[in-house]
């Protein structure tokens, strides 16, 4: 029987991850959204929920789960995910619908149907229903998984989802099964470059925070509510225990989910201690006091596109004693990107930003060499590498690196959305 992978989204693009394996069984890996230049959500290609034997959700980010509730308008497929993935996804979906309800055809009722249809799995757990699924830690965010699929016709497939193979302050690096794999469906978000050594980034970051606070300044860290904020909370409370750290925005709710599912953390005790030693902002009136004291404020949103981080930014931006430290990916049209490029944000009535502005690479994705090392682990049995979830330039760089490391017998493809890749005739 011919087994093929249909790219419903995430082909030569970052986000909108959706990959349908078709053979004797039909398994959908993720079903997410991305956003166009006008910040409007873009959906993956359609798939009929009645045709699906299983839907695997690798993690909670909207670019992997944001379209999945559509499957529950007319159907009720079986979902596989970790519990923290769906708990975090609920928070992100509520926020997503607040901004996009006018153009999205599902509501929270469909999300809750999806939640009730989910088979919750843990790391290293396997599920068999004619085919076999095994879930392992992907090291990306809390509850994120890589998925090994062994089909009923014998194909052995690894879907990486978003993967990070280095350990951070909150999460262990990805775990790999000691099995033979003939096809890897691999993300390539940063396939074109390597990240700097994490310990060097952390050292420079901590030194900057300490320097600004010691001189009486306020440090604003706009950060993603999921993952990045919890990592930096833990780093700063561990390395600078005498510095006052304030947390604002959705970070608090996400951190509560981290505590609830702390068995997925690298060091649960350390994170519990972190939460005890930071200050959560619960009232808008508290914000006014923070912008004039030496402290650290970690606030959503990470690209300065909204949330309390914009309030704080406007208050501290004109004082050279303060600092704005960007620690997340900055999309080309975002305020954070414009600030780094131009040093000002007239959209926020700031024609001159005098505060210190810096960006630090705290990526939760593996870089080029990390991705290549993942593929090399399966070199002995590998036949296909399908690069997804990455731009064309990054994929071409990674493809060349993989070809050199794996040799000419491995087929490496970079399909675009709408393409089909045959895995076995």
Automatic annotation (TrEMBL):
This is Beta-lactamase domain protein. Residues 229-339 form the Beta-Casp domain. SMART domains: Beta-Casp, Lactamase_B. Pfam families: Beta-Casp, Lactamase_B_6, RMMBL. InterPro entries: Beta_Casp, MBL, Metallo-B-lactamas, RibonucZ/Hydroxyglut_hydro, RMMBL. The keyword Hydrolase applies. Keywords: Hydrolase. Residues 15-209 form the Metallo-beta-lactamase domain. One of its GO terms (molecular function) is RNA endonuclease activity. It comes from the Archaea.
